[in-house]
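Exercise 7. Predict the joint structure of the components listed below.
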Amino acid sequence: MSTEKIPYKIYLSEDELPKQWYNVRADMKKKPAPLLNPATGRPVTADELKAVFCDELVKQELDETNAYIGIPDEILSFYKMYRPAPLVRAYCLEKALETPAKIYYKFEGNNTSGSHKLNSAIAQAYYAKKQGLKGVTTETGAGQWGTALSMACSYFGLDCNVYMVKVSYEQKPFRREVMRTYGASVTPSPSNTTQVGRKILEEFPDTNGSLGCAISEAVEAATSKEGYRYVLGSVLSQVLLHQTVIGLECKTAMDKYGIKPDMIIGCAGGGSNLGGLIAPFMGEKLRGEADYRFIAVEPASCPSLTRGVYAYDFCDTGKVCPLQKMYTLGSGFMPSPSHAGGLRYHGMSAILSELYDQGLMEARAVEQTQVFEAAQRFARVEGILPAPESSHAIKVAIDEALRCKETGEEKTILFGLTGTGYFDMYAYAAYNDGKMSDYIPTDEEIAKSTAKLPKV
Amino acid sequence: MSTEKIPYKIYLSEDELPKQWYNVRADMKKKPAPLLNPATGRPVTADELKAVFCDELVKQELDETNAYIGIPDEILSFYKMYRPAPLVRAYCLEKALETPAKIYYKFEGNNTSGSHKLNSAIAQAYYAKKQGLKGVTTETGAGQWGTALSMACSYFGLDCNVYMVKVSYEQKPFRREVMRTYGASVTPSPSNTTQVGRKILEEFPDTNGSLGCAISEAVEAATSKEGYRYVLGSVLSQVLLHQTVIGLECKTAMDKYGIKPDMIIGCAGGGSNLGGLIAPFMGEKLRGEADYRFIAVEPASCPSLTRGVYAYDFCDTGKVCPLQKMYTLGSGFMPSPSHAGGLRYHGMSAILSELYDQGLMEARAVEQTQVFEAAQRFARVEGILPAPESSHAIKVAIDEALRCKETGEEKTILFGLTGTGYFDMYAYAAYNDGKMSDYIPTDEEIAKSTAKLPKV
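Solution:
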């Protein structure tokens, strides 16, 4: 434990970067429920998954016993281009809030994809390349995942086909251009390049598209072409595994300076960032070595943990993926068009769902306008303009810091700042113009969409 | 000198950050020519300048003797939020080019303003605050300077009025929203808020605006309101002084690892980045302690160093600022609408002009399409999507690295990567679509605009 003054930003040296990812499932006594094959109702086999996903990633997806999985050298080299990510002491925010709390954030936005998504994209691209594949397919909504995957594929010389939800394709032309600059082909979904796309276009010629439809198109494109596989940017356990690089770096940096967080806060859509950030700390809690509070923050417009049910459901609206037991609002749930596209997902990672169900993690839902208030407050004192998704964590971190101001407690707060909002300025414009609305689904809406869960 | 392997990114610790800016004029035997008052034809006095600029900044502008000027603690604290900026070893680019050259770049884009502009913005805002001013005014073209100043003013609670060239205001709504998020008021120029604006609008109601007009409006706004001053993001010697934090960090990092660059390359519009990057190295050259090649890279569409004349000229098209001796294309020169807005300036910093005139620095002009080719090549292997301005330096760094490949020389190349291109995707779109054009002014055009220089 160091006694020197904590710097504004703690950067690890390259030697201190994690060389293994941490698989939190190994330390869970009760494991997440297995993925089910919707056709048979039985746990999916590795062979079934290998038709859709890369072989090595299937292995990682199903691995519940190995606590540490080595990071290949090629991935480590890529990580070194943009990692370590800084652990920042929010001195200026603390001062502005006049709080006795000590606030830290792990900032993942200092790379061109603008978020933590690159941590898993490069891993998935690497395994695809190693398997000798020609390329991968994926879907993207807000565009951060698609951008990250484009960068990763460009690095390894892989073909990258992104199905981008049509309304985003049209409203976010700049995200699309970043992907094109990295050599990806970007197709607005639904498209006439797939059977499922043509079918939807025939039925609803004026549709704006949806994430569910884009997933179905990407899966069809991957499985119908020689040498392609489908990749996904969140929800899956393999993605949470790769993202543990966030939490591991964070833990090393905090240990180095003798910092112990009282609570760890992260936004949660599919769970990739939160799962990666908390994993090593959760491991200590599971092993009885230390205790922490973990808080998942979700949008009030899409409250899977706080208002959903814990049950088997489809991961996609097209119902082509395996069934996963998770907190879900129902795969048919249509969240209102909020500005935090990365959090508009009906379900939640199986790992996080199980930890939440066991009472090891809390969850809180926050409304959009409050989130942008917090984002602006943060931006003005800490310099960084945060992504709408990340700002959900900022909102709760500020709430907790203000609570400390009331009670006088000097708590240590750590939150994940997943990315920057440079491609979300239309959302900030709505906020600046006072035109942002908050929509919270009614109990009837949620009851209706969760009533249609598959029977298993 | 360290013998350990050079990491991908060298981050200094906070203790190693420069505590003084370096004033290269102190080491120049022949100083830059003094600014002249256009009304009297005599050197401007401090008192004359103080009507427009903050007192302390006037002192810095006129200081030719003090080699080091202390950085106030408040500015150092702000620097610590986003500095040190990394010095990056471009291992992946070297590999892709198959060059024996060693390539380094100093990356200034890891802050929300997206560029090095913040280094001077925070200094100028600090001195304005210290003088007890209410606010500052400025102009912005592409928007990077306006964004940086908005952030700095927000931090110190200063009012910030930005006159944004009308065509940029309309074409770059997202830049405008970033400034608004930081609390700045952004006015499309020409506007009816100033006399000069109203006059221009009366004469040319459909004008798209120009930097020259925006400067004139900002100066009028500053001098006609109690408690306001005008600030500028480049060209002035005070700005180059603040930007030496780039070069000083760079030098410390290189010395630490025993790296000596053979050549230092930077893009040059008004000269703030290049001047700041090369200053401490140039100091060594001026004092006869070491030798380096310095290469200024400018757009072929606006070639002030390579095709301009060295003479007294107005810094603005509105002719309200002092006369400066510099390499200039004439203050009436209208550069073609290239995508590197930050380099579309008719003149060049007085310091850099004098160094160039003394043969201490080289200059090279490059065409836009080649610049975007280099930008894309760089982005695909180094991860970072560069600003069009910064990509001018990338283009020449790649050219020099490929020359080393031919000759087999293991030269060490350092270039300045001033910022990111996230708000320039319309430009990348033009490149991706094959719709980018190159325009080089004819000799007649340059002769015509330089024929109208003021007589002094």
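Discussion. Chain A has two domains: 3-17+84-114+238-450, 21-69+117-237.
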